[in-house]
Request: fold
Amino acid sequence: MHIFDYIRTGLKNLWRQKLRSSLTIVAVVIGAISVIVMVSLVIGAKSVFMQQLEAMGALTQVTVTGSSEVEESGSNGPFGFMEASNNEGEGAELNDEVVEKLKGISHVQDVSPAASVWGFQSARLDGSDKKYSAMLVGYKPTPAFEQSIIAGRNLEPGEIAKIVIGGGLLDSFGYEDNPSDILGQKVVFKTNKGYTGYGVDLPKPPAGGDQEQYWEDMNDKTYDIEAEIVGVMSPGPGDQQNFITMAWAKQILTNKFWKGQGGESGYKSEPQYELDIYNQIKEKGYGSIMVKVDSTDNVEQVASDIEEMDLGASTAKDFLDELTKLLNILGVILGAIGAVSLAVATIGIVNTMVMAIYERTREIGVMRACGASRGVVRKLFTLEAALLGLLGGLMGVAVSYGLATVGNYYGNQYLLDQGMSFSNIISLPWWLLLGIIGFTTLVGLLAGLYPAWRASRLDPVEALRRE
Amino acid sequence: MIQLQGVNKVYELGGEKIYALDNVSLEIAPGEFVAVMGPSGSGKSTLANVIGGLDSPDSGQITVGDQEITKIRDKALSTYRNKKVGFVFQTFNLHSGYTALENVMIPLVFAGVRLGKRKKKAQACLQAVGLGDRMKHKPGQLSGGQRQRVSIARALANDPEIIIADEPTGNLDTKKGREIIDLLKKLNVEQGVILIAITHDSEIARQAGRIINIKDGRVS
Reply:
């Protein structure tokens, strides 16, 4: 008997039991949709992260920290800028020498040190009193490290008192809908007490007399430091960071103090003071160094080269690997939940087939009388069950596609509002869809095996006698 | 030519052995019209079934033509049934969801005949039994007599050598019954198929060339 005839007969038989077939198929459809949607959500989440990282350039970036030990205890993610802490741990110091060495590694496009700027307790927009906290990161704004911006421009190397703000401050200042309007306005930072960096003209201690008061005043004094907003960054995971040039950061992080010269401290002679500086960065090194690699393929190699220099190197890949592991587990769990409903649908197929065969006993007798062998009967019923699975899978895929289109439409709106720009979180890769169809068909086939076997073992004479 | 040699079919019922067929030996020549008669439970249907390959004896031998059908496996036996035998039942046993045409096509599907060819053949068979204008009707839309004609058309689909009719007129009124017998006789004479009719109907017995009497599984 030809395969087409098997299929034709099977379909005809399913069509004859429309209601029963439809109900069974619906159960499979629901099961298929569950699995598809769950799994594709997880796939989509991963792609969302990838796209974000890519947009941030994090995929071709290696974050270098003091040493492997520091790297593990620290919290340097791929958003290296994010956690650029001033190097307080042990290990090799990150200085300009190291920067030069890193530049020499093959496939390295560019290198920029990064330093977190402490010393400012709050920031406000010039003209407003509302204070917010803001993280400042200094870096060397070479072309390789261009940030993705939605208004204005990137910093130019060496610029002083200019800032590129992130989404966080943008929202706090209330310009999320019209970022270009904030360009040119000034952010006013309030320094911590005792700040003596950039913008401070430190008065000499008084010649004689009340030094204590002087020092007390100095330790209490705060200053307002202004920075002009020249650019606004695209929204993303790094929203809390705001950028200034390394040049300016160095100035901010340079403490000044008057150092007394030796001399007689008799109240008649004038003490000599010399202005001394303590460049935090020079003394303690950079918090971290960003290394831009020419292509994602070479990132791993560069990272291991850096580690050989007894430095810590972390890449987006490490983060992604962790994330992937988590998402995979999530995917399996969600998929399993979806699979449960598919399992229930399978039981439905078995039940449908068993009932059908019971009701069609005479029909089976006729088939046998007309010359169908046991094998033919078995194959026919197995095929009917497989068709139930196949049709359920096909419809499940079709409905999932519809759901995904609708879901993505609304999902994209939501994400856009949240400031993340990109595409569809529910993605339906072809292998998932084909896999589900294949799976439901297989499941249907397996579900039909036992009932079909029973059908084939019916005694034709008995079967014909049945009413 | 059908030959039975020492055919036995035994059933166990509550510890007792019941011989549906008890050492049956007989011969049926090609083209014969044979009526098998006997009281209820005498084994008439069983005899028809083993000749038709719908059932297998427990011992003994049955040869049809040059094919021995007692010891062959299910696939081969099914092929024999498909190609060499046509069954006509008392209760018609038609597929209620199929049209007359589709019903007649059933044996052709199992014979591996493709759609175009089998449609043609089925149409021819239906015409041969006088139902050329009822091909798209479902059994529910046909009278008893017409249904039995469809059964006969189905039995003829693969040009069998043997037609086994088990009480073919049992569910029909006298007039219709006569029509059916006439039809069967006609086919027997015109096409030379062996016609084995199991029956109580004396009318059929009259038309038959030979009567086989069976009682308690034994043929006299």
The beta strands of chain B are 2-13, 16-28, 33-37, 59-64, 67-68, 85-88, 162-166, 194-198, 210-215, 218-219. The mean pLDDT of chain B is 90.
